[in-house]
Write a structure and sequence with these properties.
The chain is of the alpha/beta class and about 350 residues long. It has two domains: about 230 residues, TIM Barrel (Alpha-Beta Barrel); about 80 residues, no CATH class. Helices cover about 40% and strands about 15% of the residues. Strand 8, helix 9 and strand 9 form a beta-alpha-beta unit. Helix 3 runs parallel beside helix 5. The longest helix is centred in the C-terminal third of the chain and has 20 residues. The protein is globular, with a radius of gyration of 19 Å. The relative contact order is 0.17.
C-alpha cells in the first residue's frame, strides 16, 4: 500500500503496513507472528519467558511459514535477590485453602532479563528487529546487537525516557501510552502515567526518530489518529488478543469485545509491577494495588498454583488478563484478516483526510 503520510516505517520495519503485532508474553507466539506477517505487519515473538533454544525453534518455525520481518522482544529489568514475601503469602493463604492447593516453594522468576546467552542467540538467528522493554541492556550487550544489524526499538512511557533511548542509539521509539494493556515499560523515576496522544505528540516534536504509537489502538481510526499526531507506525496488542491465533485462556477471551465493556485497571497483583488488565476475582477482593506484593517479577510465583487450579476449572480468578483500555471494541477475525483490515481502514481514512 502507498499513500501513508510517513513512509519511514517501510525502511524501519521492512513490512508492507506500518503495524507491529505486539510481543505479548504468554499470549503471542508462532501462530500469531506468522498470521501478522502474512497480513503485512511485523510479527513479534516475546522472549522474556523463553530459553535461547526455545527462541531458536520459534524463529525457525516463523521463517518456515512466512516471509517477512520478525521482531524479538526482551525485558531489561533488574532482578534482585528473592525478597521476603511472607506478607504476600499470608495475604494469599485463604485462597490456597479455598482452592485446596499447597503453598508453593520459592523458585526462580519466570521472566528473565536480556543476557549474554540471548545476545548470542540474536547474533545467530538475525531478526530484522529487536525491541526492549524496561529500558535497554548494558552497553556491551547493546553494542553487540547494534553490530549484528537489526533495527532496535526502545519502549518509552515519558518524553524523558524517549530522549534517553534516542541517546543510546535506538532506531525508533515505541511510545507506550497509559492506555496500553500489559506491563508499563517505565524505567526512569517510577511509574508516571501519560496518555498516548500527548506522549506521541511530544516525542514526535522533539526527536528526529520515528515514533511507534502503542496503547488503546484497536482499529483503523486509532491508527489514523496516531499517525496524524506524528506516529510513523503503531504497535497493536489487545486487538490481536481476540484472534484465534492468540494463546490466551477462555476466561480471558470471553471478556474481550463485550458490549458492556469490561473495566481495565492498573494492578501489581500478578507480577509486582504496574500493568493494565481486566478485573477478576482477586482484584475485586483485594484491590488492584497491594503493598504486600513483592517486586517484579516475584509476585507471580506465589500465584502460580492458584492460577493453575482456577484455569483448570475454566476460571480466570487469579490470572493476569492483560488488555488495553479499548478492550470493549475488539472483534475476533483471524489475525491475518485483522491486519489487512486495519491497514485498509487506516489508509482510507488518511487518504480522505489529505484530500
Amino acid at each position: 500500500m502507498s499513500g501513508w503520510p510517513d513512509r519511514r516505517f517501510s525502511g524501519l520495519l521492512g513490512s508492507r503496513l506500518p503495524i507491529v503485532a505486539a510481543p505479548m508474553a504468554g499470549a503471542a507466539g508462532v501462530e500469531l507472528a506468522v498470521a501478522a506477517i502474512r497480513g503485512g505487519a511485523v510479527g513479534s515473538l516475546p522472549c522474556a519467558m523463553l530459553t535461547p533454544d526455545e527462541v531458536r525453534v520459534q524463529v525457525a518455525e516463523v521463517r518456515r511459514q512466512a516471509g517477512g520481518p520478525i521482531n524479538l522482544n526482551f525485558f531489561c529489568h533488574q532482578v534482585a535477590e528473592p525478597p521476603d514475601d511472607r506478607a504476600w503469602r499470608e495475604l494469599l493463604a485463604p485462597y490456597y485453602a479455598r482452592e485446596s492447593v499447597e503453598t508453593p516453594a520459592g523458585g526462580a522468576p519466570s521472566r528473565r532479563p536480556f543476557d549474554e546467552a540471548m545476545c548470542a542467540l540474536v547474533e545467530e538467528v538475525g531478526p530484522e528487529l529487536v525491541s526492549f522493554h524496561f529500558g535497554l541492556p548494558d552497553e556491551p550487550l547493546l553494542q553487540r546487537i547494534v553490530a549484528a544489524g537489526p533495527r532496535i526499538l526502545g519502549n518509552a512511557t515519558t518524553p524523558d525516557e524517549a530522549a534517553l533511548l534516542a541517546s543510546r542509539g535506538c532506531d525508533a521509539i515505541i511510545a507506550q501510552g497509559f492506555e496500553a494493556g500489559g506491563h508499563s515499560g517505565y524505567f526512569l523515576d517510577g511509574y508516571k502515567p501519560v496518555g498516548l496522544f500527548a506522549l506521541v505528540r511530544q516525542i514526535a516534536r522533539t526527536l528526529p526518530l520515528p515514533v511507534i504509537a502503542a496503547g488503546g489502538i484497536v482499529d483503523g481510526e486509532g491508527i489514523a489518529a496516531a499517525m496524524l499526531l506524528g506516529a510513523s507506525a503503531v504497535q497493536i496488542g489487545t486487538a490481536y488478543l481476540a484472534t484465534p491465533e492468540s494463546r490466551i485462556a477462555a476466561p480471558h477471551r470471553t471478556k474481550l469485545g463485550t458490549l458492556r465493556g469490561e473495566e481495565t485497571v492498573i494492578t501489581n497483583l500478578f507480577s509486582g509491577r504496574e500493568a493494565r488488565g481486566l478485573r477478576n476475582r482477586l482484584i475485586d477482593a483485594e484491590g488492584p494495588m497491594r503493598a504486600e506484593a513483592p517486586p517484579f517479577p516475584y509476585a507471580s510465583e506465589a500465584l502460580a498454583p492458584l492460577r493453575a487450579a482456577a484455569e483448570a476449572d475454566g476460571r480466570g480468578d487469579y490470572s493476569p488478563m492483560w488488555a488495553g483500555q479499548a478492550a470493549a471494541l475488539v472483534r475476533a477475525p483471524g489475525a491475518r484478516d485483522l491486519t489487512e483490515r486495519l491497514g485498509r481502514d487506516a489508509l482510507a481514512l488518511l487518504t480522505r483526510t489529505a484530500e
